[in-house]
Amino acid sequence: MRFHSQNSAISGKFNISDSLEIATVNAPIQASVLSDTPSINVLATTHNAPATVSLPKSFLGRFHLQTTLAKPTIRIADKELIRDVWKAKHARRRLEILRRRDGILEGEVVMIGEDGLQERGDGFVSVTSAIAPVTLFV
Fold first, then answer.
1. Positive or negative, the Cα torsion across 27, 30, 36, 39?
2. Tell me, what DSSP letter sits at residue 88?
3. What CA–CA distances, in Å, run from 128 to 42, 57, 74?
4. How far apart are CA 64 and CA 109, in angstroms?
5. What is the pLDDT of residues 23-53, one digit of tens each?
6. Are 109 and 97 in contact (CB under 8 A)?
7. What is the pLDDT of residues 79-90, one digit of tens each?
8. Which pairs from 30-37 meet CB under 8 Å and 24+ separation?
9. Average pLDDT over the chain, rounded to an integer
């Protein structure tokens, strides 16, 4: 699914099964992504305006946040145990920060089962802007 605009804000709830691409210039992005699939791909890019993306609890995979003149922010929406629907066991999500420097924040969201085993996903999310904040809710 693709949404491209020039100088117009892009905002909404997007129910996807595989990928979402949002791009605009000089306008904000406010996207709430809905999906039951853990391995989704989301690309959100703007310039001179903030970009905020909220991911579903099912998301597993890597993320890349980048901006200039601001610090990228990641927020955890739910720190409680969540139901691992893929293996029908209780699990929790863990956020791993792999790199944080010069307006770049990269990491991964993984699932940790009660047995301590990690489940990694193939999802990827990139949120970028120039001269404005970027925020990711996981």
1. positive
2. T
3. 11, 21, 13
4. 11
5. 999 999 999 999 988 899 999 999 999 999 9
6. no
7. 543 444 444 445
8. 33/59, 35/59, 36/85
9. 86
Side chain identity at residue 121, one-letter code:
G
Closest CA to 76 of 57, 51, 61: 57
The model's confidence at residue 91, banded by pLDDT at 50, 70 and 90, is low
DSSP class per residue in 95-123:
EEEEEEETTEEEEEEEEEETTS-EE---E
- Distance, in Å, from the CA atom of 109 to the CA atom of 95, rounded to the nearest integer, reads 5
Tokens of 117: 């085993």
Rounded to whole angstroms, the Cα distance separating 133 from 50 reads 5
Classify strands 134-137 and 51-54 as parallel, antiparallel or unpaired.
parallel
* pLDDT bucket at 78, cuts 50 / 70 / 90: low
Nearest to 120 by CA among 64, 60, 41, 58: 60
